[in-house]
Amino acid sequence: MLWGYLLRMLAKSYMIQKTMRNELESGLAVITSSVLGLLIIGLSDLAGAAEDSARLSANPRDGYSSPSPLVNKATPSPESNEISPSETSLAEQAMSARHAKHYDEAIEILTVALNRFPDSLRIRLEFVNVYLNQNKHRQAESYTREILDRRPEYANGRVRLATLHTAAGRLDEAAIEAMKGLALGADSEYFSDAHYILAGDCFRKHNYQGALQHLEDAGRFPVNFPQATLHLIRAFSLERLGRIQEANQAAEKALSAGDLDVEEIRKALNAFNLPR
After folding, report:
1. Tally of CB atoms within 10 A around 215
2. Cβ of 88: how many Cβ atoms within 10 Å?
3. 20 to 30 A Cα–Cα from 251, which one of 116, 140, 175, 225?
4. What residues have CB less than 8 Å from 230, skipping those under 6 apart?
5. What is the tens place of the pLDDT at every residue in 251-270?
6. CA–CA dist 37, 46 (Å, integer)
7. 150-163: average pLDDT
8. Could you say which DSSP state residue 83 is in?
9. What domains, with CATH codes, occur in the chain?
10. What is the mean pLDDT of the chain?
């Protein structure tokens, strides 16, 4: 079995105690796919803020409303030499604070930004991301609903609704919203998150070939999950298809990625309903 191979490799590399190996093996018997959303949103801090800034510049998000006129009383007059931060700049500042786990700072930035750009979907979406990272699903859902009330066809908002459904264990609803988001043109990290959710949906339905196809697309913008996790889930899918050599190669890539440890294997195993 592939999980046994992984445990042996990890034992050699990290000198895992026998009790930990037994715990990991027994964990396979109680796996649930309902925590896939927690895996997705809980690993987003692994990506650096500098990488996100470059990605935003290279891949501007579709569907955001244009900045509305500044309404904050502190807005500089046309004669002032002071330059007011743009909607994009404020969103990127909040994103950088979020990835540094400075959530209070991110909320402060976004509160100011929303006062200046009250119609901004992008600012609201970043509120959603900050609250998701803190597992504050009620607040995240409130902003997500507000986004979709304003623009039901907003692709990235649909993907975040899918993430919330997944975290709540509503997996069929999550798959539907993920597909809607992709059909509407979800971009960058939202594109990848949607495919990651659909990979999980395929996996729990024993559609391992479909899972592999979605994982391929999920790997295009792996902001919210490490490469090691993608390789690991791919390894299990390949094993279920009987492609053992490829599965072992994928497992080796997961172990050599440098960002996977025992705890991450446990999270990944818990994220999918692996049949014995």
Report:
1. 24
2. 15
3. 175
4. 215, 218, 219, 222
5. 888 888 766 555 655 555 55
6. 16
7. 97
8. P
9. 47-75+82-185 (1.25.40.10)
10. 74
Is residue 159 within 8 A of residue 176, CB to CB? The reply is no
In eight-state DSSP terms, residue 186 is: -
For 214-235, how does the pLDDT look when each residue is reduced to its tens digit (9 = 90+)? 999 998 887 777 778 888 889 9
How buried is 77 (Cβ within 10 angstroms: 0-12 exposed, 13-18 middle, 19+ buried)?
exposed
Q: Give 142-179 as a DSSP string.
A: HHHHHHHHH-TT-HHHHHHHHHHHHHTT-HHHHHHHHH
> What is the pLDDT, as a whole number, of residue 80?
32
Cβ pair 51, 142 in contact under 8 A: no
The answer to whether 122 touches 64, Cβ cutoff 8 Å, is yes
Cα-to-chain-centroid distance, residue 237? 20
Structure tokens that stand for 71 in this block = 């309404």
Could you tell me the two tokens for 117?
């750009």
Q: What is the 3-state secondary structure (H, E, C) of 38-76?
A: HHHHHCHHHCCHHHHHHHHHHCCCCCCCCCCCCCCCCCC
d(CA 154, CA 151): 6
Q: What is the rounded CA–CA span in Å between residue 108 and residue 92? A: 13
Instruction: Identify the three-state secondary structure at position 226.
Output: coil
End-to-end CA distance of the chain: 9
Residue with tokens 């999270």: 267
List Cβ neighbours of 136 (8 Å cut-off, separation of 6 or more).
none
| Cβ–Cβ under 8 Å, residues 259 and 45 | no
Give the residue from 96, 102, 164, 97 showing the smallest Cα distance to 128.
Answer: 164
* Token duo for residue 55: 């990605």
Asked whether the CA dihedral 129, 132, 134, 137 is positive or negative, the reply is positive
